[in-house]
Write a structure and sequence with these properties.
- There is one protein chain.
- The protein contains 4 helices and no strands.
- The protein is mainly alpha-helical and about 60 residues long.
- It has a domain of about 40 residues.
- The longest helix is centred in the middle third of the chain and has 17 residues.
- The model has no long low-confidence stretch (mean pLDDT about 85).
Length: about 60
Amino acid sequence: MDPDDAVKVLEGVAHLASKLSNDQRSELIDLLGTMAEAESDPARREFLEGFGLLDDAV
C-alpha cells in the first residue's frame, strides 16, 4: 500500500474514532484488546496495541 494512502486511511479511522460515544469507544477498546491478545503474529499484535486506545483504557 502506498504510504500516503495508508496515512489517509488511518486519518479517517482516527476521525471516526473521535466521534464515538463513550460506550462505543469502550466497546472498540475491548474489541482491540481481545484481538491483540488472540493475535499470534507479533507485528500484528503490536499494530493493534499501537492504536493508543488500549493504554487510555487502563
